[in-house]
Structures are given as structure tokens and as C-alpha cells.
Amino acid sequence: MIPTLVGMTVARAIPTATLAGLAMGRYALHGGVVRWAAGTPAAGQIVAHLLPSAGMASPLLAGAGIITSATSTVAATAATTAATAATIGAVFSGIAAVGAVVGAGFSIANFFQSKKILKAVHATMQVAELNLAVTRAGFSELDQRLIRLEQMLREVQQTLTSIHSLLESTQRAELLVALEHLEKLPTISDDRVRIELLTHSATTLGKLRRVYYGQMAQANNIPSGLGAEEYYLIAALGQVRCYAELRELAMARSILTDVVKEWQSWARPFTRAKLLGEHPQRFLYGDLAASAPLTMVGAWLDFATDAQEGLSAIEELRTKIEPWYYHRSLSDDLRDVRRADHTSSRDAKIVYDRDRVIPALNKMVARNAVLASYEGQYELMEQLRITPGELDAQIAALTPAAPGEEQNEDESMLVLLAA
Fold first, then answer.
1. At 412, phi and psi to the nearest 5?
2. Can you tell me the distance from the alpha carbon of 188 to that of 202, in angstroms, rounded to the nearest whole number?
3. How many Cβ atoms are within 10 Å of 39's Cβ, its own excluded?
4. Residues 308-348 pLDDT 10s
5. What does the domain layout of the chain look like in residue ranges?
């Protein structure tokens, strides 16, 4: 153990008692927050926070689902995206393995390793392309995220008019200006000016959040939907951070709760309609087995339906698959799923699902988990009456890196244990 942090114990590894609670279903892991599981007397209460340590780099915006190998005009980018999608699929297989242990109670002995949990938490952060520590979602990072996002969108704007309209909107200029001003906040010494800047920016970002939510709702394809979603989250997280830095922590947490509900109200129908589509049973065929392990298919279905059915949902999906011994009188819809008229048509569908749909499905599930972590962290800051910047400074002070010392795997996360 290392020193306490404002009433919480800080550890380098998850205690055995917490691991046992996860393995036996007493606790549940939501992104980077361990809570008492549903049905227990203390359901929903936080047991521990698993946070990236101060030295951990933030995930880069990979652009899964925005730039795709189906875009013929950007062949070089397409190759990079395909490789990224493969990496994301491999990482999420690791998350699925841990999820199977937690959900089904298999291999409990092997689960009693803090390192495995921390690897899964880190993988969730990478797939979501969001840092698990809300303290790292600062104004500077949001500004850099916007720059990276627009670089990617410009690569496909000529092929999608909806992307072009995102880049040319007047709201984009307002977002750029607001983030540029907020990025300079540490250089402002006058408290009055600082408060005025934060207040004005919070209002601007709140308005933009509403605008981008409307654009998300109107998106009719995957790239434009995920592009608008990125703008929405940048504006929303910026707005929440403004109120937190103003020490209006109750307001910040309330707005974040609204943001998560808004995001879920868009993401679940989007996942059902645009990602899973009319024939989600296609993910059970061998063509996509390497990219879509059953544990992840179950996670997609649970997220899309806001249920926790796991394998039951997969069993129901199996009933929609053609029988092994089938007749020629099958419906056209099922024949379209099982067979294609031409090999090239079949291959195009497989590539589309593998390189665009599956990364986007994984991203939705992981982002849902990370946003749940943000809610838990803002709840913590409200209780402790400290800002994100102050929390980050305290964590950094407790874990100074020795000169020239490399951070090992066990030091990539910190565990904050509730009293």
C-alpha cells in the first residue's frame, strides 16, 4: 500500500478480497469502476476505482468506423485502418476472456491475478479511444482530439456529403475557439478572468452539445454517425469539465449523467439499426469468427438491448440461422445472409463487417464502460469537493517516477479503495 488519498487507500494491485468479490459476482466491473453488483444489499455503491497512473499516455483517436477500407480513394489510409481494426479485435478478445470469467465464474483460480484485470481495463480504454481517468480528459487533450478527428474526416469528406457538412458548419468554428481558449486556462492568473472564461465556454459547449446530438440522430450511415458522436463527446466532456473547474461539482456530475443518458439513447438504436442490422446472426458464422468471439457478440447484444442476457441472447440468435440441412425454398433474406451471388460480393460484405462494423460495435461497448467510469469519478470528486485538476495533482504526488525509471506493467494503474 502507498499513502491514503483524501480518505481513500491507494494500492498498486487489486486486493484479493476485491478479486474474490468479482469472481463470485458480488461485485461488478464497469469500465474502471468496481461496484457492488445488482441484487446485493449495497447495489451500485463503489468499491474501488481503477485509474491510469499519472505517466500513462492517453489513447490516440484511431477512427474505427469513420475511415474505412471501403473508401477506395484513400487506399493508404484504408490499409492502416484495417490493421487498426485487427488490433482492436485482438485486444477485445482479451477483454472478452476476462468478461467470461467474471460473468460465468469459469477458471476462478486463474482470475485471482490483479494483472489480468488491469490489462482488461487498459484494453477497454484503448478500444474506447477515451482515457479511463476523467482527469486526463482535460481541455488540451480535447483540443488535440478535435484536431486529429478533423484530419481523419477531411480524408473522406469528398465521398460523404454528411461528413463535408460537419466540417463546414458554423458550430465547428465555435468549438475550435472555445477549446483554444480553454487550453490557455493555466496561463491565466486573474481569478475573475478565469471564472468568466469557464462560464462563457460552458454555455457555448452546452449549446454545441445539443447541436451535435441532433446531427447524430439524423446520421444515416456509420461514418457520419460516429463523426458527429465525436464532436458531441468533445463538446459534452468540455462542458462538464468547465463546471468541475468552477467547483460546481454537483452541476458537473448532473450534466455528465444527462450526457451519458443522451449518448446511450442514441448509441443503442444506432447499434441496433446501423451496426447489428436486420441480420445480427451473421456474426455467428465462421467467416467472422476471428473478429467476433461469442463473448463479444453477447456484449454487443446486451448493450444494444440494455439487457444482461449474455449467452441467452446468443442462443436466441442461433434460432435465426439457416439449418445445416436446408432446402432450396429458403427466403430471399436468409439466402442473402448465407450466400452471395458472386464471390466478390460475399468478400465485400465480410470486409465491411470486419473493418467497419465490428470495430464500431466494440467501440460502442467500450465507450459505454468508460463513460460509466467517468460518472463514478465525478461522484468521487463531488464527495471529496475537489476539482479534476486537484485530484490529478494528488495522484501524481503520490506516485512520483524515479529519474530514468521505466514504468512497468504493474504500475500502469492505480487502485483507489473506498473506506
1. -80, -15
2. 17
3. 8
4. 777 788 888 888 887 666 544 455 555 544 445 556 677 88
5. 2-277+353-417
